[in-house]
Design goal:
By secondary structure, the protein is of the alpha/beta class. The protein has 8 helices and 14 strands. The chain has helices at about 15-25, 75-85, 130-145, 165-180, 210-220, 255-265, 285, 315-335; strands spanning about 5-10, 30-35, 45, 50-55, 55, 65-70, 90-95, 125, 150-155, 230-235, 240-250, 270, 290-300, 305-315. One of its GO terms (molecular function) is protein dimerization activity.
């Protein structure tokens, strides 16, 4: 017996990956529906060997749909997720619209699976920001072992984190630079080709950006409210894969060797850490993969119980689509959802 699943934002970067991952992992689906804006009505997207015709979200009736995986931005989610949830369809939302709502669980299955139990209050479950998701996968087992006090993180975030327009801008600008054409900035505030931009999402009053604030708030909500965290989020000219330089201060002693052993056994983590040329992961190698990769694990002697490391993952997969599908799997594994249409 399978479920009726709708993917909203199916023509987007995350939505297309969502369809791939649902198919790859054999999620129990009886019927799959691809939804996007009216602009995309009738266009086609792939689901395994099949082609799906995209339908418009604003004319779709969710009353017999079991799960809606939503990745169409915050405004669309704010308007639609509560209505869809009220129709008895569980929404797994990729945007930031509900992440900080006390009645909405924010879930990374390797980190806080038990928090999912509260989902029925609104029938909405939030997926974290891409940079937070991969970081907490690596930090959780280390926190369990030695209790994290403080984290200092700098991110190197790929342009796919800004949607398909972000990828198009890097491509177009790179070509323009090569043919000595004029370079236009539309999606990003400054040129992204052959450059880096220390600004993601809007500025807040304290000088941090909203992206940096999200990493603080989401780490506290999912891992531990006592953890202090400060972030600098930077956009880099990479198509897929977010990287993070992470410095962690623990309450209890932990060596680099111990951290490496813990991370080798931890769910979702893969350690690639040879202290030699090329003995580490780069974002290009993470693209299309499910793991959160950890490299360059070393002790930081400038603080008590300090470690530094390099964390990389495919932002469209663990940072978005894969995590959302894992949340759907968790609902099924724990018997928290039943198909509305019973098999005849
Ligand atoms: N990219 C990442 O790394 C990442 C990670 C975590 C979370 N997210 C979140 O995931 C969401 C989507 O990101 P993305 O990278 O996939 O963006 P994207 O490539 O720009 O795609 C946006 C999708 O939303 C659809 N959409 C836009 N307005 C709509 C409307 N009014 N009604 C229905 N559908 C509408 C678009 O459909 P049309 O083609 O019809 O316009 C498209 O399918 C965002 O909330 C983002 O914050 C992204």
């Amino acid at each position: 017996m399978g479920f009726k699943v709708a993917v909203v934002g199916a023509t987007g970067n995350v939505g297309r990956e969502m369809l791939n991952i649902l198919e790859e992992r054999g999620f129990p689906i009886d019927e799959i529906v691809a939804l996007a804006s009216r602009r995309s009505q009738g266009t086609e997207v792939s689901f395994g060997d099949r082609t799906l015709k995209v339908k418009a979200l604003d004319t779709y009736d969710f009353s017999d749909t079991d799960i809606c995986i939503m990745s169409a931005g915050g405004n669309v989610s704010k308007e639609w997720s509560p209505k869809i949830g009220k129709q008895g369809c569980v929404v797994i939302d990729n945007s930031s619209a509900f992440r900080y709502d006390q009645d909405v669980p924010l879930i990374v299955p390797e980190v806080n699976p038990d928090a999912i139990s509260g989902f029925a209050r609104k029938n909405i479950i939030a997926n974290p920001n891409c940079s937070t998701a991969q970081m907490v996968v690596a930090l959780k087992p280390l926190h369990d072992a030695a209790t994290i006090k403080r984290v200092v993180v700098a991110t190197y975030q790929s342009v796919s984190g800004a949607g398909k327009e972000g990828m198009d801008e890097l491509f177009t600008q790179t070509r323009a630079v090569f043919v000595a054409d004029q370079v236009e900035n539309k999606k990003f505030t400054k040129r992204i080709a052959f450059n880096v931009i220390p600004h993601i999402d809007v500025f807040l009053d304290d000088g941090f950006t909203k992206e940096e604030w999200k990493m603080v708030a989401e780490t506290k909500k999912m891992l531990d409210p006592k953890i202090k965290l400060t972030a600098t989020c930077v956009r880099v000219p990479v198509f897929i894969g977010h990287s993070e330089a992470v410095n962690v201060e623990f309450e209890k002693p932990i060596t680099a060797d111990e951290a490496r052993e813990i991370l080798r056994e931890a769910p979702g983590c893969q350690v690639i850490d040879k202290r030699e040329d090329g003995g580490y992961i780069t974002p290009v190698e993470s693209a299309g993969e499910d793991a959160t990769y950890i490299s360059r694990i070393r002790e930081d002697s400038t603080v008590d119980n300090g470690l530094s490391m390099w964390i990389v993952s495919d932002n469209l997969r663990k940072g978005a689509a894969l995590n959302a599908v894992q949340i759907a799997e968790l609902l099924v594994e724990r018997g928290l959802i039943q198909p509305k249409k019973k098999a005849a």
